[in-house]
Each structure stands twice: as structure tokens, then as C-alpha cells.
Amino acid sequence: MSKIAGYVETYSALLNGIAEEADAITMRYFRSASLDVERKSDGTAVTPADRAVEEMARDKVAKSGLALDVLGEEMGGAAVKPASNADRSRMIIDPIDGTEEFSRGIPTFGTLLAIEENREIVAAMVSAPGLRSRWWAYRGEGAFRDGKKLHVSEVDRLSNAMVFTTGTGPSKNAADQAKIRRLLDASRSSRSFGGFWQHMLVAEGAVEAALDWTSKPWDLAPLGIIVEEAGGRSTNARGERTIYTGQLISTNGKIHDQVLELLE
């Protein structure tokens, strides 16, 4: 059995099982009049649904028989830093990416799952029941949405591209804002949308670039591999393939260098 085939055989049952149950949990809470929304110390929202999904996922990992640690947004676990070659493989989970939207009845939320082996994401799944969509990728196997293979767009000039961005977050760093503004002005059109979906739209070929600027590893872990397996590129602003610097710039690959040049 090849290593690539092994990723599918090893992890697909676990990821699909978690995604199915996560969808059921989140949709039970979604648009509930009694949904309790709390604020964490950093000001971000958390709900009982976030905690229930992560607890369920951790339980499934524990019962899977796989040698996996877990790094999650709500319950911590493995260190929030790149794994070393000596570390065990781990699942990285954001139980609800877009909790703010979820808590307001907006359907652009999803459960984000990724498997990290030897500092590389090798398997990923994003499940968004409010959008009735699920995306996945296994290293070397391509990227898919609901069983349909994905491919990025063929646009090769930034001036013809659509760019999505989350902005720079609460710090409102003026220098970062100026860089992003240069990029948006150079594109054909832009939107401020954010979250996982903008990167999935790059993988689908609907838009050419998406930027996350101040995110945590669990916000980013499954996104890059899905874009890459669809033929695109995902890096930070320095061109490094990593989920640990807070930034993720996904493009169709053809305009990636043009994007990075404007973000210098």
C-alpha cells in the first residue's frame, strides 16, 4: 500500500464520522432561540455547540485506535506550535469556524479537521451543513467538494482576479492594512468575507485569492491542503507553507507571486 493511499484508508472513516456527527450537533443548535453565547478572554464567541463538537471529536479520536494527539480551539491539548518529527501525529480541530456567524443565524460556519504528520498536513475535511457542503483532501489524491474533484481558476493576472479577505483583525495595524489595500486595489474586484469559505472558493475556482491575516492554527489547518490539491498555492505573506504564523494567503497559483509582491 502506498503512503498516499494509506492516508485515505487510515483517516477517512475518522474524519467522515466526526463530520457527520458535528453536522448533526451544530444544526440542532443553529438558529435556536435559546442558544447561549459567551465571550472568551480574547472577545471571540463560544457556544455549547462548539464545546459539544470538540468533546465528540476527541472521544472519537480516543476510540479510533489511532496514535493521534489532539489540538483544538476550545479544549487545548497539544502545543500550539509546529509539531516536531519526534511528536506523535495529531488531529487539529476547530469545532465551529465562524462561531460569530453561527450565533447570529448566518449559515457560513463549518467544522474544520486536519491531520498533521511530521509537520505536514496530510488529510483534511471542512464540513459546512448550513451551506450543505463538505470539502476534503488527502495529500496526493486531489481535492473534492461533495465528491466532485476541484480545480482552481486559470486567471493569470491580478488585474482580472477576485480577491477575498478577512482584513487585519482587531489590532488594526496600519502597515498591514496598507499592504492589503494595495492588493485589493490591484484586483478586478474584492470582497471582505473571511473564514474557511473564502479559501474553499479559491479551491473551487470561483475566486482567485483569499487572505487570512490574524488566525490560529485550527482556523487554517485544513485549508491549505485543499487549495494545493486543487492546483493552487497557500502560504504566509513570506511565501512559507505554514499554519503557525497567523497568515494564510491562498491563490490559484498563477497570481501567487503577484499577490505576495504587494504584501511585502
From TrEMBL:
Keyword Disulfide bond assigned: no
UniProt-annotated binding residues for Mg(2+): E73, D94, I96, D97, D219
InterPro entries membership: Inositol_monophosphatase-like
Any one GO MF annotation of this record: metal ion binding
Pfam families: Inositol_P (PF00459)
Alphabetical UniProt keywords: Magnesium, Metal-binding
GO terms for biological process, alphabetical: inositol metabolic process; signal transduction
Cofactor: Mg(2+)
Record's protein name: Histidinol-phosphatase
Taxon lineage: Bacteria, Pseudomonadati, Acidobacteriota, Terriglobia, Candidatus Acidiferrales
